[in-house]
Design goal:
This protein is mainly alpha-helical. It has three domains: 87 residues, no CATH class; 148 residues, no CATH class; 48 residues. It has eleven helices and four strands, in the order αααααααααααββββ. A hairpin with a 2-residue loop joins β1 and β2. α3 crosses α4. The longest helix is centred in the last third of the chain and has 45 residues. It is flat, with a radius of gyration of 32 Å. Keywords: Membrane, Transmembrane, Transmembrane helix.
Length: 344
């Protein structure tokens, strides 16, 4: 027994033994931490949490053990890590984010396979959140670049004008479907509904982005592939030096990734929004009468009103009468003239 103990001490004193000792220490720390942390997790999630954490720890432990048993595997992994670190010197900020999206996607996919179905949803939300951050950064970068030029400012202005006009038109249509009259005098309700139409515009923009990226990938990428093989002298002569050489590394791969990345995000927004929009629109339609009652109606003296009723003038001595009912709902009556209102 003493000989076995001495041999273990001698083994753990060697460089390879120290690596195994580190793995054993990590295992002890993991066991010490997982027990108290598991009691802070709600009971319905506790089993899944422990199962997921244990499988992840065993997976990384197996990788570390393979690195000790097979040194070439560890050297290959270190070589890949150094290559990723060296790429920071030649890639710009956006390209590094695209690279990290790819690496994170591979890692999230591997972890979801290891953790099982219960871990797939939270891991997918983590990956989607990172993709949204990358997309917002690109949107800010492109907006800042376009706002520095007159043509870009004009394009941004047209885009905002078109979006606001479309939102205003959809809002007016939604209000007209409820009150059966053109909402000319309901300014506040129309503006509020136009703001609430932003999710609808996002779904439409997602579909537009998806179609644009798919068409661009079919038309622009082949053109870039053909232009890539042209000698620089021919390109300068053919386009009269209009298009300057791209200073970034790997421009073709970057464009292809952008088309795929934003096309996928656009498709996700379009599909998800298409599922959620019907419920959202029904909620908006239920909100319209109460909004009209509180924002665009008043207790007028033009007509004889009952308790709690408000009116809104429509012109030509016509009025729209509203009255709150049980709960937060509001009932909008048909268009009437003051003479048609029955006396109390």
């Amino acid at each position: 027994m003493n000989n076995i103990f001495k041999k273990l001490l001698q083994f753990f004193s060697t460089p390879k033994g120290k690596q195994w000792r580190h793995i054993a220490s990590y295992l002890i720390v993991f066991l010490i931490l997982i027990i108290p942390v598991s009691f802070s997790i709600p009971p319905q999630w506790r089993t899944s949490f422990i199962f997921f954490q244990t499988r992840i720890f065993l997976f990384f432990t197996a990788i570390a053990a393979c690195g000790i048993i097979f040194p070439r595997t560890r050297q290959a992994a270190l070589f890949c890590i150094r290559k990723i670190q060296d790429s920071d010197k030649i890639l710009n900020q956006s390209q590094r984010l695209y690279r990290n999206v790819t690496l994170l996607g591979i890692g999230i996919f591997a972890l979801s396979l290891i953790g099982g179905n219960n871990s797939a949803t939270p891991l997918a939300w983590i990956f989607l959140s990172f993709c949204i951050i990358v997309a917002l950064y690109d949107a800010y970068r492109w907006y800042r670049s376009m706002s520095e030029h007159a043509v870009g400012k004009a394009a941004l202005g047209l885009g905002f004008a078109a979006a606001s006009t479309l939102a205003y038109a959809i809002a007016r249509q939604e209000i007209a479907d409820i009150i059966h009259v053109t909402p000319i005098n309901f300014t506040h309700t129309t503006l509020l509904m136009a703001i609430l139409m932003i999710p609808t515009l996002l779904v439409l923009s997602g579909g537009l982005i998806y179609i644009t990226c798919m068409v661009a990938s079919l038309l622009v990428v082949p053109f870039l592939l053909l232009a890539r093989n042209l000698p620089p002298e021919i390109k300068e002569w053919l386009f009269a030096d209009i298009f300057k050489s791209n200073p970034i590394k790997y421009p073709l791969i970057t464009k292809f990734f952008q088309f795929f990345f934003y096309g996928t995000l656009g498709l996700l927004i379009m599909r998800t929004g298409g599922i959620a929009l019907p419920h959202y629109e029904s909620t908006i339609q239920k909100l319209i009468p109460s909004t009209i009652y509180h924002l665009d109606m008043y207790h007028g003296q033009e007509c004889k009103l009952q308790s709690g009723e408000k009116l809104a003038p429509l012109g030509d001595s016509k009025f729209l009468i509203g009255k709150p009912v049980v709960g937060v709902e509001t009932e909008i009556f048909q268009i009437i003239k003051c003479d048609d209102i029955p006396a109390h």
